[in-house]
Write a structure and sequence with these properties.
Shape of chain B: globular
Mean pLDDT of chain B: 86
Number of helices of chain B: 2
Distance between the termini of chain B: 39 Å
Strand order of the largest sheet of chain B: 1-2-3-4-5-6-7-8-9-10-12-15-16-17-18-19
Strand content of chain B: over 45%
Low-confidence stretches of chain A: 6-18, 368-443, 526-546
Largest sheet of chain B: 16 strands, antiparallel, barrel
Radius of gyration of chain A: 47 Å
Helix content of chain B: under 10%
Structural class of chain A: mainly beta
Number of strands of chain B: 19
Helix content of chain A: 10-25%
Oligomer: heterodimer
């Protein structure tokens, strides 16, 4: 501590004891010592003592800093003489030329005087110019504060020159009345400190402008995430993140990955599709599940595998051995659709064994198109609405209801669907009456019970109970249940109606008795409903059931 | 290091600095702004954002000599009420911001005309977009360090000419792609995908026609490599190398001080025109995985701005300003999406019209009072606005105090 104090004392002392310093800031100045007649050239730093004179050349500038902290800028072609300088009283004489003095606030007993051959200016803390012409006429211009000014001949009383005023004392005459100083002189009224401050302004402005480019680039990254829908904020002000990717694990397959993060949890789903042949490099417009007309599909999905998980539990649904089958739709054109030989549904809770809930195998006859025709609702006019192009798939929420030719018996989804109801959108899971029973050839069965349903806003909650193999399409009910909830969600997180096709996300929630109190809660981007190879007419190309 | 050694080191350092301290001239600058105000989005006056904004700038500049000045600076800013530009794109974009910036700049006066400068700085921005991201955990918080050199020539007609080279690195420490934990390298989109470096070159000039008329010019170019962000290809896979953006900007701002007018008070007007153009070229594309649509050159755009600022000095003390600016950004290949998200063949454009008003009055002793207001109207041919708003209006106003020392 003692050493630090000594060091500080050293610094302070070295500053205080330093004399009136001269710094030649441009060109060469000349110093004449009091007892000498010789002018010695000075560049850089030097000192002037009382009695010494300083002269600047045509292109030189010098700065004098006194012991009292005052600063005097000596302009070109100027000669000054230091009369006294003891740290308290400072007196300069301007013989010819111009100076600008920045005088610190003085104590009452101290003084700062600038004399000329014809005048004297006394100040107490101010900034001023003194301009002495060849004929010794002296002009005082006050930039800050006030200065007492008088002629040495005593022709007039001392006058006080105020800020912004300039007073000329011509040689041998009394002071002229004060005049207003030209504006440009006022504007230049800055000392070194002020100049540094102005430099700060300019430099900071330049730095800020360049910083602005970087800021814009950083903001651009953030904006991109919002524009792409990868980052959002829900109705409660919470962060929601959605990322979607395509993977190409093999030439004949692709995967669609969705990852969500919100409320501190991460959910993800992955749909893998394997085709019967090598897929094109671009999947744009690709439809691997259906095709218009009665010609066979050359490129189709052989298997699909979908998994949704909250990182602990999962829901899994996969189909294998797919092949296209041509169906007839009386009066509406034929189409091909891929039928899978096996359809499995499985859930697994954390720490539990996987539970197979269903394994559906279609009736062998189903795969022969001549045996069945499809009553797929296809056009708006199927719902009694406006007639559109026959055969056009302009109804994105169409469904399949395969009816056995002749007998009228049905297979697969045996729902009775009210064609005039919007609930036809609900696709496989709901029946207007209450319950859908889904028979499988191996004896598994699924009973879908509509738990809750509304369109304003859209809210669909279905509880699926699975029946183990048994007589007549179903044995004892499997203890593990599965709830599927589906919502439409606006960007602000509020659930909205089914009619809000624009600007909505889809939320799908899977819960199961095997998941305990957890669930799998996934948000999909707004167009997911039509995802994965949407055909030109907007028809959904998802595998049935997704 | 023992305390005794530490003391010795401090003392020797102080002794070395003594001559510098003796010759140094301190020129500290302090600015403090405290404002209160409101911002409105799309005319939603029922729920404006209300709050305080504040800014502090301290520059303890020290001129060691006529030839060398060191300009360290620290600044801090808190913002609850957003600027109209920051509302761009969505009402949720920024709820609160804290920005801290520190840098040090050395200025060498080589001779009467030439100066050389070097700068080193660090900036940290904390953004609170949501209610569940506390300070420091914001998804889009970022930090940036940068350094740069500059040469400046000062003259008569060409009052100032500057050539600068800068380098900076921006990192978003809280942003990790979601796929990293779940799929890892299988999805090779990248790790710190938002982080980028920037290699900048700037030329600036100010040419004076007279004391009252001048023109400022600026040309800025940046190459920005994204070290971790992979480029997505037509297949949907991120196999196209790493992202690289090139950004260029040029501006021209003629300025003239007009004759003083007398209308109740004296009015000293100055008028400035702002003309600028910018272009971004990126090798990054976009793949909308949900619909299997590949959008090449998704990020490339051109942007033009035309505007004017009129400022008055009133009665020699107060200030009044009015500005209007029109900006049009046209994406070269980014397709417009219909309301349901369907991609169309048309490229997106957006236009913003921004106006501002400001009044300032000095109260003395370094204090001044200021009132500011701004309005922005944005429109675009983009109709898909589920996550980002392209058509909106926003406005704000602030009233506050400024202190300068």
């Amino acid at each position: 501590m003692k050493q630090i104090s000594l060091a500080i004392a050293f610094i302070v002392a070295s500053t205080v004891l330093y004399g009136a310093e001269v710094r030649v800031t441009r060109g060469t100045a000349y110093v004449k010592k009091a007892q000498s007649a010789r002018w010695a050239a000075l560049r850089g730093k030097g000192r002037v003592e009382p009695g010494d004179s300083l002269r600047t050349g045509a292109n030189s500038l010098a700065r004098v800093r006194t012991k009292g902290g005052h600063t005097v800028y000596v302009q070109p072609k100027t000669t000054i003489e230091s009369v006294s300088e003891n740290g308290k009283d400072t007196q300069f004489k301007v013989l010819v030329g111009r100076i600008r003095a920045f005088v610190q606030k003085l104590r009452p007993a101290n003084k700062f005087e600038v004399r000329t051959p014809v005048a004297v200016a006394a100040v107490r803390g101010t900034t001023f110019d003194m301009d002495v012409s060849e004929d010794t006429s002296s002009r005082l211009s006050v930039l800050e504060g006030a200065v007492n000014y008088r002629d040495l001949a005593g022709l007039a009383k001392e006058i006080e020159v105020l800020k912004g005023q300039t007073v000329l004392i011509p040689r041998g005459q009394a002071p002229r009345p004060p005049e207003m100083m030209p504006k440009d002189l006022m504007q230049g009224a800055v000392g070194h400190r002020e100049r540094v401050r102005r430099e700060i302004f300019v430099e900071k402005r330049q730095d800020d402008r360049r910083e602005g480019f970087q800021e814009k680039a950083a903001d651009g990254q953030k904006e991109e995430q919002y524009q792409l829908g990868r980052a959002a904020v829900d109705a409660f002000g919470r962060r929601v993140r959605i990322e979607e990717f395509i993977l190409r694990p093999a030439p004949d397959s692709y995967a669609y990955v969705v990852v969500n993060h919100r409320e501190g949890r991460t959910d993800f789903s992955r749909l893998d599709v394997v085709a019967n042949a090598t897929l094109p490099s671009s999947l744009e417009g690709l439809n691997l599940y259906s095709k218009e007309g009665n010609s066979t599909m050359s490129l189709y999905a052989k298997s699909t595998h979908y998994m949704a998980s909250n990182s602990l539990d999962y829901y899994r649904e996969w189909r294998v051995d797919g092949a296209p089958v041509v169906f007839f739709t009386a009066g509406r054109g034929d189409f091909s659709e891929v039928v899978f030989d096996h359809w499995f549904v499985e859930v697994k809770g954390a720490g539990k064994d996987p539970m197979l809930l269903s394994h559906w195998v279609p009736d062998t006859a189903f795969k022969f198109s001549a045996n069945y025709e499809a009553t797929k609702s296809r056009d708006i006019d199927d719902f009694g609405g406006v007639t559109s192009t026959p055969g056009a798939l302009d109804n994105p929420w169409g469904y399949n209801n395969f009816v056995k030719v002749g007998s009228g018996g049905s297979i697969g989804d045996n729902r009775e669907v009210d064609l005039l109801s919007f609930e036809t959108r609900l696709h496989y899971f709901t029946d207007i009456t209450a319950r859908t029973k889904y028979n499988t050839s191996e004896g598994y069965a699924r009973e879908s019970e509509k738990v809750e349903f509304s369109l304003f806003p859209e809210k669909i909650i279905v509880r699926n109970r699975y029946l183990a193999p048994g007589a007549n399409g179903g044995g004892p009910t499997i203890a593990t249940n599965l709830w599927v909830q589906q919502y439409r969600v606006a960007p602000d997180g509020q659930r909205v109606s089914s009619f809000d096709f624009n600007d909505v996300n889809f939320e799908k929630v899977y819960s199961s008795t095997d998941f305990g109190f957890r669930n799998i809660d996934l948000l999909y981007s707004p167009v997911f409903r039509f995802a994965m190879g949407r055909s030109d007419d907007g028809w959904s190309n998802l595998p049935p059931g997704y | 290091m023992t305390p005794r050694r530490l003391h010795a080191k401090i003392i020797s350092t102080l002794m070395l600095l003594a001559p510098l301290a003796r010759a140094a001239e301190w020129a500290p600058y302090l600015s403090l702004d405290v404002y209160g105000g409101q911002s409105f989005f799309s005319g939603d006056n029922e729920s404006p954002v209300t709050g305080p904004n504040g800014a502090l700038l301290f520059v303890p500049a020290v001129a060691f000599s006529e030839r060398f000045t060191l300009m360290p600076s620290v600044s801090a800013r808190y913002q609850a009420v957003r600027d109209v530009q920051e509302l761009a794109g969505g009402g949720f974009l920024t709820q609160e911001q804290q920005i801290y910036h520190g840098d040090v700049k050395g200025i060498w006066v080589l001779n009467e005309r030439w100066r050389a400068k070097a700068r080193l700085g660090y900036k940290r921005e904390f953004i609170k977009d949501t209610t569940d991201e506390p300070w420091g955990k914001g998804l889009f918080d970022y930090g940036r360090w940068g350094l740069g050199v500059e040469a400046e020539r000062r003259g008569d007609r060409w009052r100032s000419l500057r050539w600068a080279l800068d380098f900076s690195e921006t990192a978003f420490p809280n942003f990790d792609p979601l796929t990293i934990d779940n799929f890892g390298a299988e999805i090779a989109a990248g790790d710190a995908t938002l982080d980028f470096r920037s290699h900048d070159a700037t030329w600036e000039g100010e040419y004076g026609f007279s004391d009252k008329a001048s023109v400022s010019m600026l040309v800025f170019g940046a190459a920005r490599p994204f070290r971790q962000q992979a480029v997505v290809q037509e297949t949907g896979l991120f196999t196209g190398g790493k992202r690289m953006d090139y950004y260029v900007f040029a501006s021209l701002a003629p300025r003239v001080m007009l004759r003083e007018r007398q209308f109740i008070w004296s009015w000293e007007p100055s008028v400035q025109l702002n003309l600028s153009g910018a272009s971004l070229f990126s090798n990054q594309n976009n793949y909308a995985a949900d619909v299997n649509v590949y959008n090449p050159n998704y990020y490339d755009y051109r942007e033009y701005t035309l505007g004017t600022d009129v400022n008055f000095r009133v009665a020699g003390r107060a200030t009044a300003g009015f500005g209007v600016g029109w900006t049009r950004r046209g994406y070269l290949d980014r397709p417009v999406q219909a309301g349901d998200g369907t991609f169309t063949e048309t490229a997106i454009w957006s236009e913003t019209l921004r106006t501002r008003l400001s009044l300032g009055y000095p109260l003395g002793r370094g204090f001044s009072v200021s009132l500011q207001g701004a309005y922005e109207d944005a429109k675009s041919n983009m109709r898909y606005e589920s996550t980002y708003r392209y058509n909106y209006s926003s406005s704000n106003y602030f009233l506050g105090l400024n202190y300068e020392m």
